[in-house]
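discrete fold record:
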Amino acid sequence: MIRFEHTRKLYDGAAAIRELNLDIQQGELLVLLGPSGSGKSTVLKMVNRMVSHDGGHIFFNGQDINSFNVQDLRRRMGYAIQSVGLFPHRTVAQNIATVPKLLGWDAHRVQARVYELLKLLALDPEPYASRYPHQLSGGQQQRVGVARAMAADPDVLLMDEPFGALDPVTRAALQLTLKTIHRATGKTILFVTHDIDEALLLATRIVLLNQGRIAQVGTPLELLQQPANDFVADFLGRADLGLKQLSLRTIAPHIQAIEGTEPIHAIAHTATLREAISQMAALHVSTLCVTDAAGTLLGQVRAADLLENQHA
């Protein structure tokens, strides 16, 4: 889908990106993670030529990006940023419809797409389509920004710290929404963040950058369980790597039949190991009932089993 070959970028003679070699597969939710100044946003912006690279090559669907008309390239890549950038004088529907209208879609198709995306992003079309950006909360504006980026069904969705300015509750809700969108659409997403927990939650793979170079590439569990060097271990938080691993695993594989007295307290089968252990600690219990979405009892989980099997 996207390939970097020996890609370099200089700013005032200093290397921001050094010899980047990376293959991004179709359908990935790839997170670019790293400290400030590591080159995350530069990598993202080079993909749609908002920033030009100074050496090497970048390929999109097998074709060098410099061979594309830049406007055609960008229309194939949705772009969502932290500041949203909605047009204040346009309604929500008009904002989302920006690129489809540029592409000449007919009015019926545009409206259908606007309503489809509003529903996907948990915004009821009836009240929200006709509202203006100033009538929305920050989280709602960010949802509209994501909808606008997806409106023309782009091949790739580029997201540059889109949730960074939001409060923790809204941010968590939008992270879950993005995971739902990724599962539902299979869209290739490149996501920039400096937030480790956000990267671990969202990514199918993480590219951890340091001073313009790749420090490690892998799944969240691979980075946590097999950090390539001291920088990776320290950046991810050496002291709580185990806790972070617990956040990536669900309790579902550890559900057992109830033996003896049924536990008093229950937890959803979709809970993570960390959530289950935290709830046990708060309730001063070592066993919880597990229920499905309908409230049907599935069995139980025990603290000893969850902790013993965290590396399984």
About this structure: DSSP finds 14 helices and 13 strands in the chain. The chain has a mean pLDDT of 90. Residues 168-185 form the longest helix (18 residues). The two ends are 32 Å apart (CA to CA).
